[in-house]
Q: What sequence folds into this?
Protein backbone atom coordinates (compact mmCIF):
# COMPACT_ATOMS: atom_id res chain seq x y z
CA UNK A 1 0.00 0.00 0.00
CA UNK A 2 2.82 2.32 0.99
CA UNK A 3 4.70 1.54 -2.26
CA UNK A 4 1.62 2.46 -4.32
CA UNK A 5 1.34 5.78 -2.45
CA UNK A 6 5.01 6.63 -3.08
CA UNK A 7 4.64 5.78 -6.77
CA UNK A 8 1.60 8.04 -7.08
CA UNK A 9 3.47 10.88 -5.32
CA UNK A 10 6.44 10.58 -7.71
CA UNK A 11 4.14 10.58 -10.74
CA UNK A 12 2.29 13.65 -9.45
CA UNK A 13 5.56 15.52 -8.79
CA UNK A 14 6.85 14.66 -12.27
CA UNK A 15 3.63 15.94 -13.82
CA UNK A 16 3.86 19.22 -11.88
CA UNK A 17 7.50 19.79 -12.89
CA UNK A 18 6.72 18.88 -16.51
CA UNK A 19 3.75 21.26 -16.53
CA UNK A 20 5.84 24.09 -15.04
CA UNK A 21 8.66 23.54 -17.53
CA UNK A 22 6.17 23.56 -20.40
CA UNK A 23 4.67 26.81 -19.13
CA UNK A 24 8.12 28.44 -18.89
CA UNK A 25 9.01 27.27 -22.38
CA UNK A 26 5.81 28.74 -23.76
CA UNK A 27 6.29 32.04 -21.90
CA UNK A 28 7.10 34.78 -24.43
CA UNK A 29 10.46 36.57 -24.26
CA UNK A 30 10.34 40.09 -22.78
CA UNK A 31 9.49 42.74 -25.35
CA UNK A 32 12.13 45.06 -23.87
CA UNK A 33 15.49 43.78 -22.67
CA UNK A 34 18.60 45.52 -21.27
CA UNK A 35 21.75 43.65 -22.28
CA UNK A 36 25.13 44.11 -24.01
CA UNK A 37 26.45 43.65 -27.52
CA UNK A 38 28.61 40.72 -26.40
CA UNK A 39 25.63 38.86 -24.90
CA UNK A 40 23.52 39.54 -27.99
CA UNK A 41 26.26 38.03 -30.16
CA UNK A 42 26.78 35.03 -27.90
CA UNK A 43 23.03 34.34 -27.88
CA UNK A 44 23.02 34.71 -31.69
CA UNK A 45 20.49 37.51 -31.45
CA UNK A 46 22.80 39.56 -33.69
CA UNK A 47 25.16 38.17 -36.29
CA UNK A 48 28.96 38.41 -35.95
CA UNK A 49 28.94 41.02 -38.72
CA UNK A 50 26.38 43.12 -36.86
CA UNK A 51 28.47 42.84 -33.72
CA UNK A 52 31.69 43.85 -35.50
CA UNK A 53 29.98 46.85 -37.11
CA UNK A 54 28.61 48.10 -33.78
CA UNK A 55 31.92 47.65 -31.93
CA UNK A 56 33.76 49.49 -34.70
CA UNK A 57 31.34 52.44 -34.63
CA UNK A 58 31.54 53.05 -30.88
CA UNK A 59 35.15 51.91 -30.49
CA UNK A 60 36.46 55.46 -31.07
CA UNK A 61 34.99 56.38 -27.70
CA UNK A 62 34.68 53.16 -25.72
CA UNK A 63 37.57 51.02 -26.97
CA UNK A 64 37.67 47.65 -25.18
CA UNK A 65 34.47 48.52 -23.29
CA UNK A 66 32.44 48.62 -26.51
CA UNK A 67 31.33 44.94 -26.36
CA UNK A 68 29.87 45.51 -22.88
CA UNK A 69 28.13 48.84 -23.57
CA UNK A 70 24.54 48.97 -22.30
CA UNK A 71 22.16 47.99 -25.10
CA UNK A 72 18.38 48.26 -25.06
CA UNK A 73 16.64 45.68 -27.25
CA UNK A 74 13.04 46.13 -28.41
CA UNK A 75 12.02 43.19 -30.55
CA UNK A 76 14.85 42.93 -33.09
CA UNK A 77 15.82 46.60 -32.81
CA UNK A 78 18.78 47.50 -30.58
CA UNK A 79 20.09 50.85 -29.29
CA UNK A 80 23.44 51.11 -27.51
CA UNK A 81 24.26 53.89 -25.05
CA UNK A 82 27.93 54.75 -24.58
CA UNK A 83 30.28 57.59 -23.71
CA UNK A 84 32.41 59.01 -20.93
CA UNK A 85 32.51 61.77 -18.34
CA UNK A 86 35.80 63.68 -18.49
CA UNK A 87 37.21 66.13 -15.96
CA UNK A 88 40.33 68.09 -17.01
CA UNK A 89 42.70 70.19 -14.92
CA UNK A 90 45.12 72.13 -17.12
CA UNK A 91 48.02 74.49 -16.45
CA UNK A 92 49.51 76.57 -19.30
CA UNK A 93 52.57 78.78 -18.96
CA UNK A 94 51.00 81.36 -21.31
CA UNK A 95 47.50 82.69 -21.91
CA UNK A 96 47.38 81.41 -25.48
CA UNK A 97 45.14 78.33 -25.43
CA UNK A 98 41.76 77.04 -24.33
CA UNK A 99 41.15 73.54 -23.01
CA UNK A 100 41.43 72.28 -26.60
CA UNK A 101 44.76 73.65 -27.78
CA UNK A 102 44.38 72.65 -31.40
CA UNK A 103 46.73 74.58 -33.67
CA UNK A 104 46.25 77.94 -31.99
CA UNK A 105 49.22 80.28 -32.08
CA UNK A 106 51.27 80.80 -28.91
CA UNK A 107 51.40 84.41 -27.69
CA UNK A 108 54.74 86.04 -28.38
CA UNK A 109 57.15 86.68 -25.51
CA UNK A 110 56.98 90.28 -24.32
CA UNK A 111 53.20 90.41 -24.68
CA UNK A 112 50.80 90.14 -21.75
CA UNK A 113 49.46 86.75 -22.87
CA UNK A 114 52.94 85.46 -23.56
CA UNK A 115 54.28 86.44 -20.12
CA UNK A 116 51.39 85.27 -17.90
CA UNK A 117 50.13 81.77 -17.11
CA UNK A 118 46.63 80.23 -17.00
CA UNK A 119 44.78 77.48 -15.14
CA UNK A 120 41.71 75.80 -16.68
CA UNK A 121 39.27 73.35 -15.06
CA UNK A 122 36.69 71.94 -17.49
CA UNK A 123 34.29 69.08 -18.17
CA UNK A 124 33.42 70.21 -21.71
CA UNK A 125 35.01 67.24 -23.49
CA UNK A 126 32.58 64.78 -21.85
CA UNK A 127 30.79 62.70 -24.47
CA UNK A 128 27.59 60.71 -24.96
CA UNK A 129 26.46 58.60 -27.89
CA UNK A 130 23.59 56.48 -29.17
CA UNK A 131 23.89 53.82 -31.86
CA UNK A 132 20.73 52.18 -33.21
CA UNK A 133 20.49 49.19 -35.51
CA UNK A 134 17.54 47.69 -37.39
CA UNK A 135 17.02 43.95 -37.99
CA UNK A 136 19.32 42.52 -40.65
CA UNK A 137 17.43 41.69 -43.84
CA UNK A 138 18.91 39.49 -46.58
CA UNK A 139 22.44 40.35 -45.45
CA UNK A 140 21.73 44.11 -45.46
CA UNK A 141 22.37 45.97 -42.19
CA UNK A 142 20.96 49.45 -41.46
CA UNK A 143 22.16 51.57 -38.54
CA UNK A 144 22.36 55.16 -37.33
CA UNK A 145 24.57 56.94 -34.84
CA UNK A 146 24.32 60.15 -32.84
CA UNK A 147 27.37 61.20 -30.83
CA UNK A 148 27.55 64.48 -28.93
CA UNK A 149 29.85 66.36 -26.57
CA UNK A 150 29.85 69.74 -24.79
CA UNK A 151 32.51 71.55 -26.83
CA UNK A 152 29.97 73.44 -28.92
CA UNK A 153 30.47 76.97 -30.21
CA UNK A 154 30.08 79.59 -27.51
CA UNK A 155 30.61 83.33 -27.31
CA UNK A 156 34.23 84.43 -26.86
CA UNK A 157 35.08 85.05 -23.21
CA UNK A 158 35.38 88.72 -22.24
CA UNK A 159 33.93 91.55 -20.17
CA UNK A 160 32.36 93.59 -22.97
CA UNK A 161 28.71 93.07 -23.83
CA UNK A 162 26.63 91.98 -25.62
CA UNK A 163 29.00 90.09 -27.94
CA UNK A 164 31.25 88.46 -25.33
CA UNK A 165 30.32 85.73 -22.88
CA UNK A 166 31.32 85.19 -19.27
CA UNK A 167 33.73 82.53 -18.05
CA UNK A 168 30.93 81.07 -15.92
CA UNK A 169 28.71 80.64 -18.97
CA UNK A 170 31.52 79.04 -20.94
CA UNK A 171 32.57 76.43 -18.40
CA UNK A 172 29.46 75.70 -16.35
CA UNK A 173 26.83 76.00 -19.13
CA UNK A 174 28.73 74.15 -21.84
CA UNK A 175 27.07 73.98 -25.26
CA UNK A 176 25.92 70.56 -26.50
CA UNK A 177 27.06 69.81 -30.06
CA UNK A 178 26.94 67.00 -32.63
CA UNK A 179 30.17 65.09 -33.27
CA UNK A 180 28.75 62.30 -35.42
CA UNK A 181 25.26 62.08 -36.93
CA UNK A 182 24.97 59.60 -39.77
CA UNK A 183 23.03 56.70 -41.24
CA UNK A 184 24.80 53.65 -42.64
CA UNK A 185 23.74 50.84 -44.96
CA UNK A 186 26.06 47.82 -45.14
CA UNK A 187 25.48 45.39 -47.99
CA UNK A 188 27.35 42.38 -49.42
CA UNK A 189 28.48 44.61 -52.32
CA UNK A 190 29.38 48.04 -50.85
CA UNK A 191 28.69 50.09 -47.73
CA UNK A 192 27.00 53.51 -47.84
CA UNK A 193 27.37 56.23 -45.18
CA UNK A 194 25.42 59.53 -45.27
CA UNK A 195 25.78 62.25 -42.64
CA UNK A 196 28.43 63.79 -40.41
CA UNK A 197 31.41 61.56 -39.67
CA UNK A 198 35.21 61.63 -39.66
CA UNK A 199 36.84 63.03 -42.78
CA UNK A 200 38.11 60.19 -44.92
CA UNK A 201 41.39 62.10 -45.30
CA UNK A 202 43.91 60.62 -42.88
CA UNK A 203 41.68 57.51 -42.61
CA UNK A 204 40.36 58.87 -39.33
CA UNK A 205 40.21 57.85 -36.57
CA UNK A 206 42.31 54.69 -36.99
CA UNK A 207 45.62 56.56 -36.62
CA UNK A 208 44.92 59.20 -33.99
CA UNK A 209 47.71 59.45 -31.38
CA UNK A 210 47.33 58.56 -27.70
CA UNK A 211 47.21 61.74 -25.58
CA UNK A 212 45.65 63.03 -22.39
CA UNK A 213 45.30 66.34 -24.20
CA UNK A 214 42.02 66.98 -26.00
CA UNK A 215 42.51 66.27 -29.70
CA UNK A 216 43.33 67.41 -32.33
CA UNK A 217 46.78 68.39 -31.25
CA UNK A 218 49.17 70.52 -33.31
CA UNK A 219 49.94 68.95 -36.67
CA UNK A 220 47.24 66.26 -36.37
CA UNK A 221 44.66 65.67 -39.11
CA UNK A 222 41.47 65.84 -37.04
CA UNK A 223 38.11 66.85 -38.53
CA UNK A 224 34.55 65.72 -39.15
CA UNK A 225 32.04 66.89 -41.74
CA UNK A 226 28.84 66.00 -43.59
CA UNK A 227 29.44 63.60 -46.47
CA UNK A 228 28.28 60.79 -48.71
CA UNK A 229 30.73 57.86 -48.60
CA UNK A 230 30.87 54.56 -50.47
CA UNK A 231 33.31 51.93 -49.22
CA UNK A 232 34.22 48.30 -49.73
CA UNK A 233 35.95 45.93 -47.30
CA UNK A 234 37.49 42.63 -48.37
CA UNK A 235 38.49 40.56 -45.35
CA UNK A 236 40.39 37.29 -45.39
CA UNK A 237 41.91 35.35 -42.54
CA UNK A 238 45.26 37.12 -42.82
CA UNK A 239 44.64 40.39 -44.67
CA UNK A 240 41.94 43.09 -44.75
CA UNK A 241 41.74 45.50 -47.69
CA UNK A 242 39.52 48.61 -47.64
CA UNK A 243 38.75 51.18 -50.31
CA UNK A 244 36.55 54.26 -49.97
CA UNK A 245 35.49 57.33 -51.92
CA UNK A 246 33.47 60.27 -50.59
CA UNK A 247 31.83 63.53 -51.58
CA UNK A 248 32.28 65.96 -48.68
CA UNK A 249 30.73 69.24 -47.65
CA UNK A 250 33.08 71.75 -49.32
CA UNK A 251 35.18 74.07 -47.13
CA UNK A 252 33.24 76.95 -48.67
CA UNK A 253 29.47 76.71 -49.13
CA UNK A 254 29.65 78.98 -52.22
CA UNK A 255 32.10 76.64 -53.95
CA UNK A 256 29.36 75.11 -56.10
CA UNK A 257 30.87 71.60 -56.07
CA UNK A 258 31.57 69.15 -53.23
CA UNK A 259 35.04 68.29 -52.00
CA UNK A 260 36.31 64.86 -53.04
CA UNK A 261 38.29 62.37 -50.95
CA UNK A 262 39.43 58.80 -51.56
CA UNK A 263 41.59 56.26 -49.78
CA UNK A 264 43.04 52.75 -49.61
CA UNK A 265 43.94 50.81 -46.46
CA UNK A 266 45.71 47.48 -45.99
CA UNK A 267 45.80 45.64 -42.64
CA UNK A 268 47.63 42.45 -41.65
CA UNK A 269 45.34 40.64 -39.22
CA UNK A 270 47.92 38.29 -37.69
CA UNK A 271 50.27 41.09 -36.57
CA UNK A 272 48.50 42.97 -33.76
CA UNK A 273 49.35 45.35 -30.95
CA UNK A 274 47.59 47.33 -28.23
CA UNK A 275 46.49 50.77 -29.42
CA UNK A 276 44.80 53.66 -27.66
CA UNK A 277 43.57 56.38 -30.01
CA UNK A 278 42.74 59.56 -28.14
CA UNK A 279 42.35 58.98 -24.40
CA UNK A 280 39.73 56.25 -24.06
CA UNK A 281 39.77 54.01 -27.15
CA UNK A 282 42.03 51.14 -26.05
CA UNK A 283 41.76 48.10 -28.31
CA UNK A 284 43.71 45.49 -30.24
CA UNK A 285 44.67 46.74 -33.72
CA UNK A 286 46.52 45.12 -36.64
CA UNK A 287 49.56 46.39 -38.48
CA UNK A 288 48.17 48.66 -41.20
CA UNK A 289 48.94 51.42 -43.66
CA UNK A 290 46.56 53.85 -45.38
CA UNK A 291 46.91 56.36 -48.22
CA UNK A 292 44.29 59.08 -48.68
CA UNK A 293 43.83 62.05 -50.97
CA UNK A 294 41.77 65.23 -51.07
CA UNK A 295 40.69 67.41 -54.01
CA UNK A 296 38.84 70.69 -53.44
CA UNK A 297 37.82 73.79 -55.34
CA UNK A 298 37.05 77.30 -54.10
CA UNK A 299 35.24 80.17 -55.78
CA UNK A 300 36.12 83.51 -54.22
CA UNK A 301 34.75 86.98 -55.07
CA UNK A 302 37.24 89.12 -56.95
CA UNK A 303 39.38 91.38 -54.77
CA UNK A 304 37.30 94.57 -54.85
CA UNK A 305 34.85 96.26 -52.53
CA UNK A 306 31.95 95.52 -54.93
CA UNK A 307 32.84 92.28 -56.74
CA UNK A 308 30.96 91.19 -59.83
CA UNK A 309 33.11 88.25 -60.86
CA UNK A 310 34.96 85.45 -59.05
CA UNK A 311 38.28 83.62 -59.01
CA UNK A 312 38.17 79.81 -59.13
CA UNK A 313 41.03 77.59 -58.03
CA UNK A 314 41.52 73.90 -57.26
CA UNK A 315 43.87 72.32 -54.73
CA UNK A 316 44.88 68.87 -53.58
CA UNK A 317 46.51 67.04 -50.67
CA UNK A 318 47.77 63.56 -49.82
CA UNK A 319 48.35 61.76 -46.50
CA UNK A 320 50.03 58.50 -45.51
CA UNK A 321 49.24 56.88 -42.13
CA UNK A 322 50.55 53.73 -40.43
CA UNK A 323 50.21 51.70 -37.23
CA UNK A 324 53.10 49.33 -36.46
CA UNK A 325 53.11 46.89 -33.53
CA UNK A 326 56.75 46.34 -32.50
CA UNK A 327 56.16 44.15 -29.44
CA UNK A 328 52.92 42.26 -30.17
CA UNK A 329 49.79 42.51 -28.05
CA UNK A 330 46.50 40.61 -27.99
CA UNK A 331 43.35 40.36 -25.90
CA UNK A 332 44.99 37.57 -23.90
CA UNK A 333 48.32 39.42 -23.43
CA UNK A 334 48.23 43.22 -23.39
CA UNK A 335 51.25 43.81 -21.16
CA UNK A 336 54.75 44.46 -22.56
CA UNK A 337 53.24 45.65 -25.85
CA UNK A 338 54.94 48.41 -27.84
CA UNK A 339 53.41 50.11 -30.88
CA UNK A 340 54.22 53.02 -33.19
CA UNK A 341 51.87 55.28 -35.13
CA UNK A 342 52.69 57.86 -37.77
CA UNK A 343 51.16 60.34 -40.20
CA UNK A 344 52.53 62.56 -42.96
CA UNK A 345 50.35 65.04 -44.85
CA UNK A 346 51.03 67.75 -47.40
CA UNK A 347 48.69 69.93 -49.42
CA UNK A 348 47.24 73.33 -50.23
CA UNK A 349 44.15 74.98 -48.75
CA UNK A 350 43.69 72.25 -46.12
CA UNK A 351 43.70 74.26 -42.86
CA UNK A 352 40.15 73.12 -42.05
CA UNK A 353 41.37 69.49 -41.89
CA UNK A 354 43.30 70.48 -38.75
CA UNK A 355 41.84 71.93 -35.53
CA UNK A 356 41.84 75.73 -35.30
CA UNK A 357 44.63 76.29 -37.84
CA UNK A 358 45.04 79.82 -39.22
CA UNK A 359 48.72 80.64 -39.39
CA UNK A 360 48.30 84.39 -38.95
CA UNK A 361 47.60 85.08 -42.62
CA UNK A 362 45.09 87.62 -43.93
CA UNK A 363 43.94 89.36 -47.09
CA UNK A 364 45.66 92.70 -47.70
CA UNK A 365 43.90 96.02 -47.30
CA UNK A 366 42.11 97.22 -50.42
CA UNK A 367 43.77 100.13 -52.24
CA UNK A 368 42.31 103.55 -51.36
CA UNK A 369 44.04 106.03 -53.69
CA UNK A 370 41.41 108.77 -53.21
CA UNK A 371 41.37 108.41 -49.38
CA UNK A 372 37.68 107.61 -49.25
CA UNK A 373 36.30 107.63 -45.68
CA UNK A 374 35.33 105.05 -44.61
CA UNK A 375 37.96 103.09 -46.51
CA UNK A 376 36.69 100.34 -48.85
CA UNK A 377 36.55 96.85 -47.34
CA UNK A 378 36.64 93.39 -48.85
CA UNK A 379 34.31 90.57 -47.79
CA UNK A 380 36.03 87.22 -48.46
CA UNK A 381 33.97 84.23 -49.49
CA UNK A 382 36.28 81.74 -47.81
CA UNK A 383 38.27 81.52 -44.58
CA UNK A 384 41.66 83.26 -44.95
CA UNK A 385 43.34 80.16 -43.50
CA UNK A 386 42.41 78.33 -46.73
CA UNK A 387 43.01 80.92 -49.47
CA UNK A 388 44.05 84.60 -49.56
CA UNK A 389 44.75 87.31 -52.11
CA UNK A 390 48.09 89.02 -52.52
CA UNK A 391 48.46 92.76 -53.06
CA UNK A 392 48.20 92.26 -56.84
CA UNK A 393 44.79 90.56 -56.57
CA UNK A 394 46.07 87.04 -57.26
CA UNK A 395 44.41 84.24 -55.26
CA UNK A 396 46.67 81.76 -53.45
CA UNK A 397 46.09 78.66 -51.35
CA UNK A 398 47.95 78.39 -48.04
CA UNK A 399 50.29 75.38 -48.06
CA UNK A 400 50.79 73.09 -45.04
CA UNK A 401 52.96 70.03 -44.44
CA UNK A 402 52.65 68.07 -41.20
CA UNK A 403 54.31 65.07 -39.61
CA UNK A 404 53.20 63.26 -36.45
CA UNK A 405 54.77 60.18 -34.82
CA UNK A 406 53.83 58.42 -31.58
CA UNK A 407 54.83 55.48 -29.40
CA UNK A 408 52.81 53.52 -26.81
CA UNK A 409 54.25 51.03 -24.28
CA UNK A 410 51.99 48.94 -22.03
CA UNK A 411 53.76 47.89 -18.83
CA UNK A 412 54.29 44.17 -18.23
CA UNK A 413 52.30 42.25 -15.63
CA UNK A 414 49.39 44.71 -15.51
CA UNK A 415 47.25 43.37 -18.39
CA UNK A 416 47.27 46.71 -20.20
CA UNK A 417 46.02 48.73 -17.21
CA UNK A 418 49.02 51.12 -17.13
CA UNK A 419 51.06 52.49 -20.01
CA UNK A 420 53.26 55.30 -21.26
CA UNK A 421 52.99 57.19 -24.52
CA UNK A 422 54.86 59.99 -26.26
CA UNK A 423 54.23 61.97 -29.42
CA UNK A 424 56.01 64.50 -31.61
CA UNK A 425 54.61 66.65 -34.42
CA UNK A 426 55.95 69.28 -36.82
CA UNK A 427 53.71 71.58 -38.87
CA UNK A 428 55.15 74.00 -41.42
CA UNK A 429 53.99 76.24 -44.24
CA UNK A 430 55.94 77.08 -47.37
CA UNK A 431 54.13 80.35 -48.09
CA UNK A 432 52.60 82.00 -44.98
CA UNK A 433 55.52 84.44 -45.07
CA UNK A 434 54.05 85.91 -48.27
CA UNK A 435 50.56 86.67 -46.92
CA UNK A 436 50.91 88.18 -43.47
CA UNK A 437 53.11 90.40 -41.37
CA UNK A 438 56.28 88.72 -40.07
CA UNK A 439 55.26 89.34 -36.45
CA UNK A 440 51.89 87.59 -36.90
CA UNK A 441 52.34 84.87 -39.51
CA UNK A 442 53.44 81.38 -38.39
CA UNK A 443 56.35 79.70 -40.10
CA UNK A 444 56.12 76.40 -38.18
CA UNK A 445 55.30 74.75 -34.85
CA UNK A 446 56.96 71.84 -33.08
CA UNK A 447 54.99 70.00 -30.40
CA UNK A 448 55.71 67.02 -28.20
CA UNK A 449 54.16 65.38 -25.16
CA UNK A 450 54.64 62.48 -22.72
CA UNK A 451 51.70 60.72 -21.06
CA UNK A 452 51.06 58.28 -18.23
CA UNK A 453 47.73 56.43 -18.17
CA UNK A 454 46.36 54.14 -15.43
CA UNK A 455 43.04 52.29 -15.16
CA UNK A 456 41.85 52.21 -11.54
CA UNK A 457 38.90 50.01 -12.57
CA UNK A 458 37.42 48.89 -15.88
CA UNK A 459 35.35 52.08 -15.87
CA UNK A 460 37.73 54.64 -14.32
CA UNK A 461 40.85 55.92 -16.07
CA UNK A 462 43.36 58.63 -15.11
CA UNK A 463 45.87 60.40 -17.34
CA UNK A 464 48.77 62.79 -16.70
CA UNK A 465 50.50 64.72 -19.50
CA UNK A 466 53.29 67.21 -20.08
CA UNK A 467 53.20 68.98 -23.47
CA UNK A 468 55.56 71.50 -25.06
CA UNK A 469 54.50 73.95 -27.81
CA UNK A 470 57.27 75.73 -29.75
CA UNK A 471 55.72 78.20 -32.19
CA UNK A 472 58.05 79.90 -34.67
CA UNK A 473 56.89 83.16 -36.29
CA UNK A 474 58.07 84.27 -39.72
CA UNK A 475 60.34 86.90 -38.13
CA UNK A 476 62.20 84.11 -36.29
CA UNK A 477 60.64 84.65 -32.87
CA UNK A 478 59.98 81.48 -30.85
CA UNK A 479 56.92 81.44 -28.57
CA UNK A 480 56.90 78.61 -26.03
CA UNK A 481 54.04 77.18 -23.99
CA UNK A 482 54.38 74.45 -21.35
CA UNK A 483 51.22 72.48 -20.51
CA UNK A 484 50.47 70.13 -17.62
CA UNK A 485 47.18 68.23 -17.68
CA UNK A 486 45.59 65.82 -15.23
CA UNK A 487 42.36 64.16 -16.41
CA UNK A 488 39.89 61.62 -15.15
CA UNK A 489 37.62 59.55 -17.41
CA UNK A 490 34.57 57.51 -16.38
CA UNK A 491 33.60 55.23 -19.27
CA UNK A 492 30.11 53.81 -19.67
A:
Amino acid sequence: MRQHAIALLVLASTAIVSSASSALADEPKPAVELTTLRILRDKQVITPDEYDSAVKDIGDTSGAKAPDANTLVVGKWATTLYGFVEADQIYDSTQSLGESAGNGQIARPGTYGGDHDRVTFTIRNSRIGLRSKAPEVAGIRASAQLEMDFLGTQLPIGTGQPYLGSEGANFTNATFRARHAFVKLETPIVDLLIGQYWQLYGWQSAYHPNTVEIQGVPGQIYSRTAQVRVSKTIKTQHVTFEAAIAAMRPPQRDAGVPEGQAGLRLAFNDWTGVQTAGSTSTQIAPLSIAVTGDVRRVRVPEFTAAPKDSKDRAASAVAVDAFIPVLPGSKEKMGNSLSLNGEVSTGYGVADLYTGLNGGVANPTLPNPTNVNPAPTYTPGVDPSIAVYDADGVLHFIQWTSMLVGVQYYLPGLDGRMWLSANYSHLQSANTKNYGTAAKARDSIDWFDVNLFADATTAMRFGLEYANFNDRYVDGTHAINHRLQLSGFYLF
Observations:
- The CA atoms of residues 158 and 164 lie 5 Å apart.
- The mean pLDDT is 91.
- Helices lie at 2-26, 37-42, 48-62, 112-115, 167-172.
- DSSP finds five helices and 21 strands in the chain.
